[in-house]
Model the fold of this input.
Amino acid sequence: MEPLKIGIIGAGAIAQRNAREAVASGVARLAGVFDVNHKVARNMAKALSAPFYPTVESMLASPDVDTVLISVPHHLHRPLGVQAAQSGKHVMMEKPVANSLEEADAILDACKTNGVGLTVNYSFRFLPKIQKAKQLVEMGALGDITGIQILQHQYKDPGYWTGARSNSPDDWRASREKCGGGFLIMTTCHIIDYVHFITGLRTERIYSEYGTLCSPAEVEDIISIACKLENGAVGSLCASSIMRGVDQNEERISGTNGTMVLNEDGISLFSTRPVDGLKPGKVHRIKKFPDVSWTAEWVRDFATSLHEGREPAVSGRDAWDNLAFITSAYDSMEKGMAVQVPVLPSVTGAKER
Ligand SMILES: NC(=O)c1ccc[n+]([C@@H]2O[C@H](COP(=O)([O-])OP(=O)(O)OC[C@H]3O[C@@H](n4cnc5c(N)ncnc54)[C@H](O)[C@@H]3O)[C@@H](O)[C@H]2O)c1
Done:
């Protein structure tokens, strides 16, 4: 398999890890770096012995680049994703795919029309804990899913919103127009992705409340969502970036035959069925998982998918569905009512949605 020749677009905070892990994946080499902040791009290019490109056009015109890994503020996902696809480059996009479904449509369309691959960095799916949870659900440990509860609380200090944690400081995270939203689209989007992945279910209807209570931002720092899944299961999600002192990350998935709790300690599973060699009717704690680089796994899967001519594990459609959940949550609060989550019937665009 030929290695991917990856051009890095955006050399800010997360791009540091993305670039290193792309190299570590063993299926890619760094073919260049571009950032409007030339200093950070030059630094990365030097550190990773890759060429520096002074403009995005020069990178996209280069035959030495066949794939771009885009890690830039959200409002730039569409223009750069579309431009890369139109230049015949495969697109690896940081999450979320875009800020709106119309923007996401444009990216999916451009990739389809130009015959290039698209994946979005929902790579937590590759964590062994998440893979194990999905396997247990598929083995029937929970029976039919009846309920999902997600809790994600952290504390983001004011510097988070002004870019103080980045090597390329900018306050785009605080802007509704640039970021598309707050904690939900920025952070909780990963959990929404992997809970849908684990259960194989999509969310059908959403009602939400959110606010900006104590952050220097236009976007939400706390959100609460009630939802109904396609099989009738009922879910809730509470997330905030203003919980002081105690981080909390927990997903509880229950069904007709059991309950599974995922948190920092691993997986706790109760099942009335004998699955995976586990005694039924008892709570089992599954704590040990191999250490893997989820980002490198994501790169490896994308390279293999192109080689095998299949969809990547995290497809454009998956990312579109994820964004449909997020934008519906924002929509619901603005309308003051429950909303249906849109469905993408094909990747040919908004007209068919
Ligand atoms: N997967 C994860 O766990 C994870 C974690 C953090 C951030 N992210 C995502 O990564 C993306 C970037 O976030 P970040 O925290 O690295 O932001 P950042 O602000 O640290 O970096 C963004 C970079 O993009 C550059 N940039 C701006 N406009 C550009 C343009 N037109 N062309 C090229 N470069 C441009 C900036 O100069 C900056 O260096 C976002 O989509 C964010 O949601 C993902």
The first strand starts at residue 4 and ends at 9. DSSP finds eleven helices and 14 strands in the chain. Residues 9-15, 34-37, 40, 56, 71-74, 76, 94-95, 121, 163, 166, 168, 170, 186 surround nicotinamide-adenine-dinucleotide (CB under 6 Å).
